[in-house]
Structures are given as C-alpha cells and as structure tokens.
Amino acid sequence: MVVSAAGNDSLMLDTLLQYPACYNAPNEITVGSILQDGDQVLGRAVFSNFSDTWVDILAPGVNIDSYLPQDSSGLKSGTSMSAPAVSAAAAIVYCKLGRQTPYADVKSLLLNTADKTPSLDTVAVDGNLLNILTLCTTPTQAAPLTEFIHFYPNPARDAVQLELPPIPDAAELEVFHLSGQRMGQWQVSSSAYPQTMDIDVQYLPAGTYMLRLRYKGQLWVGRLIKL
Questions:
Q1: Which domains does the chain have, with CATH numbers?
Q2: 46: burial class by Cβ within 10 Å (0-12, 13-18, 19+)?
Q3: Is 178:207 a contact under the CB 8 Å cutoff?
Q4: What whole-number distance in Å separates Cα of residue 157 and Cα of residue 111?
C-alpha cells in the first residue's frame, strides 16, 4: 500500500494534477493536512493541496514534532507530516490482521473509520479525517454503517442533535470517554424513515468523547468535543 502526501502548493488538484498524489491506483491513499487547536479542527492547513476527488483522507500537519538532522527534533509543517500518521494507522491494521491483508481491506478500514466532517467535504473525499482511536476500537467483524450520520453542534455545550438514517429495529447509542469509560447510553427507536434524535450532554465534563451507534452488526463512531 502506498501512502502519498497531497502536496503543499494550496492547489485544488482537480484543476492541476500533481504526482504521485493523483495517480489513480487502487493501492494508493492520498493524504492532506488540517490545522488543529488541541482537539478542535480549525480547517484545512493553508498550504495543503485539496480535492474531494483525489485526496482520500486528512490528518494533522501543522507544527508536528519531527526528527531533524544532527540527532535533534523540532516542529515541522506539511502534508509530509500528515502522511506518516496515515502510514502508522495502516501499520496498526497490518499488525492486527496480518501482513497478507489485501490493501483494499486496509484502505477501506482507514476510510470507513475516519470522521466524516461536512466542513471538510471539499478538501477530501467525504471530509475524511483520520481517527486512529475509532480504527483501533472498531471490531473487524463489525461492518461500518454505510449511511452518514450527522450530528451538531460540534463542539457542543448542552445538547446534540443527530440526523439518523432509517433504522428498522431498535439500536443503542453510547458515549465514551477517550479512556474507554462509558459515560452514557440511549435507546434509538426503530423507524422506516430518517429521524432526528436529541441527546443531553451537559453533564459531561469538557473534553473529547466518542459517540457509538450499534445496529445489527453494523457500527458507526463519531468524535464529539464537549465545551
């Protein structure tokens, strides 16, 4: 599997193809950069090339602690700082499933467990944002839900509203702290039509949490920031 940096020219790749980022190879995954402030995603890193066709996934790429010559380290920025994060995530998959795992399965796991970020959907396919925690906590036998689940506001203070796809049978929604502690759970009513659901999160301390919805062997995970 080849992990490619998208490049640092602030280009929309649909208008000016760059290589190797724009090779249409099934075993390639192209990585762009985001700017973060702690756990909060501020948007595309200003230097990062972008495309909702050619950039598969995004990862932090600004002020990344990096090795430098003469046995030193320092802060560096660029899509070449983001690509190693995705390479590390791919390595985790191979360590878990074995080195003979088909590259298509590895790529699928990386993309299916990424956060779908609407504000970044013009920057990368589906606004995919690397989420190693979700990758590591998703059972390999659980198929990701194919329908998108949107929730807002995020970050949130008091309540969050989820937009859910049709769910014919009852499901369970849970919220976990990053330590793995379950902090709450709600029953999701069955419905043949899309529905909305409001959950109270004001009791949660400020921090980052994972929302998880299980339904008939399928799994969806989203990252929630509580203010």
A1: 2-135 (3.40.50.200), 144-226 (2.60.40.1930)
A2: exposed
A3: yes
A4: 28
Residue-wise pLDDT tens digits, 57-94: 999 999 999 988 888 999 999 999 999 999 999 999 98
Question: Pairing state of beta strands 40-44 and 28-37?
Answer: antiparallel
pLDDT in tens, 179-204: 778 899 999 988 888 899 999 999 99
